[in-house]
């Protein structure tokens, strides 16, 4: 199969459906079973404001290697409803809701098949996967964190940035947008350059939103921002990280303009069984949607890691 064709088309043998959480919330999910006997099962979770369609090309790579691939849109974004009255604002005041969803989904998904179970998370998805592992909500055989949100870029630093976000969340409606447009405030960097150097892959996102505008999400709320700062600080200080022996690969873009790569490296240093691959100015935030030299290297390293730890 030509993997580039997957960037703008759902695989014919994949299925998009809905999973219902215990409280009745409907979560949009994607399943692409491997042909024949799968080598294992892979759950991929994307970042804030993302949808799984953006990663179909990567899914095709893993599917071709024998993995059954599953993903779901976090509740409150993509095709999984909204927390805020404004459907374009990404709101969440308690990441614990997402941890609960992930844990429940993981248990049901784990019991529905055999073979190694792998979790891969991008950005906020990486944060939530690591936090869920530390809290015992999920137990993958191996995990990969891609540009994980283990700290946020802030012009005033994480401590002051978190204090300011909490103050703003309390000052008015916490579900109101923290800023307008772009992925972060007070920057002249074009959105594309914050995400990927590859223009064609960047355009794929807009292609999907043109056809399914209800999936689009805009800036975060002050409530989300306050909770993100708080959750990152709590996870970084969690003593359970040093006892987390699950094999883990972390891909970090040192020039990332959205998440704090240095914070991710500090967390990785506390994990007893973690490998880190760093990228320089050649990579922006979306490593798996970068230009081919970066993307191909990332997929190669993920493949080697899974061959070793999830055979």
UniProtKB/TrEMBL annotation:
This is Lysophospholipase. It comes from the Bacteria. Transmembrane segments: none annotated. Pfam families: Hydrolase_4. Residues 37-292 form the Serine aminopeptidase S33 domain.
